[in-house]
Amino acid sequence: xxxxxxxxxxxxxxxxxxxxxxxxxxxxxxxxxxxxxxxxxxxxxxxxxxxxxxxxxxxxxxxxxxxxxxxxxxxxxxxxxxxxxxxxxxxxxxxxxxxxxxxxxxxxxxxxxxxxxxxxxxxxxxxxxxxxxxxxxxxxxxxxxxxxxxxxxxxxxxxxxxxxxxxxxxxxxxxxxxxxxxxxxxxxxxxxxxxxxxxxxxxxxxxxxxxxxxxxxxxxxxxxxxxxxxxxxxxxxxxxxxxxxxxxxxxxxxxxxxxxxxxxxxxxxxxxxxxxxxxxxxxxxxxxxxxxxxxxxxxxxxxxxxxxxxxxxxxxxxx
Length: 319
Ligand SMILES: Cc1cc2nc3c(=O)[nH]c(=O)nc-3n(C[C@H](O)[C@H](O)[C@H](O)COP(=O)(O)O)c2cc1C
Hints:
The protein is α/β, with parallel strands linked by helices and 319 residues long. Helices cover 42% and strands 14% of the residues. It is built from 14 helices and eleven strands. It is globular and about 60 Å long. The structure holds flavin mononucleotide. Flavin mononucleotide (FMN) binds at residues 21-24, 26, 45, 47, 72, 74, 98, 119, 140, 143-146, 171-174, 192-195, 279-281, 283.
């Protein structure tokens, strides 16, 4: 069986260069452990969760897999610092960070051997973080689900690759082996996928959300909240319509922020797919079924290996 291996696999001590993106209220220990067991890197999403919850999740994941997994920390969380302490105490090998610059925590994390991988959506931040000594970067394009930047994956990834000399992981809009093969051609050492793993069998989100993703078409996601400075990509529903209406009327950012409070949990845990925030990326339209995480990981690496092995047929010599 042909598979794909890159330097990222050595860095993270994983079999395949596939990371399951940390997703608040979505990627719990069960999903993260399943992806790690399959040979990728599973990541527990923590969002605004408490440090105690995170510790329980880490211990649960450890009881489900002996392989490496990571924790994602949203730096805007009031508990960010305490969660990073849990990461160090529980000897979690990898941390990915969202929403900002983990610079002030880097010294302690690196001293205790934790690999630090921030998510970036711009070249400037990528350059700054690479200089500060992080181990790798996730370059996330605006096709992704959840919080988004302004640049698409195709233009962002090669620019970040050219700007830094550490491994770059492509994210945003990657669904299958075609996406992994393309990401490698753009210079990435691996991929991070979020939306596809929402429909993994081991993902604990409400079945109504999985159903909504499976039914989604190519134009069913929308970015709301640009006027707040924190835009998010979600599946269209009554909540996204309210958001769009308020933004059209020029509502102040505080009013919009208030509308969003607790809405991600309402969707993912309680299954409120009308008034909950159903964060998902543009590849939602490509998800057709619920599958075990192992099947997803193997399908992606085997398809990419097949495509890349046969790609030389396009290369012809001309005198
Ligand atoms: C429901 C959902 C929640 C997310 N939550 C987080 C998060 O808490 N922290 C983070 O860094 N990224 C978060 N992301 C982004 C993912 O980790 C990942 O980078 C992204 O989904 C990749 O793009 P894709 O959805 O096109 O595969 C989230 C994405 C989704 C779909």
